[in-house]
Amino acid sequence: MDIEVLRAFFGWCSVLNLLVLIVAGFSLFNGQERIMSIHRQFIALSDDELKAQYFRYLATYKLLILVFNVVPYVTLYIIA
To answer: Is the pTM of this model over 0.85?
Structure first.
């Protein structure tokens, strides 16, 4: 596999995952009451704890995107 192919792969992975993160963020913040009512049926958490879990989810997902998609892309961009 060529470095250019890997760089393109990680670039598109980064773009797609960042789009998923943006859509998830907008969905959670704009439709929060609707999503919380669905999750309250399955998880016995208060509203504040549920909001904290949503924030933790978005933060963890963003960190994973940076570590596994953006950093390899930037590294390959510097190398090639």
So the answer is: yes
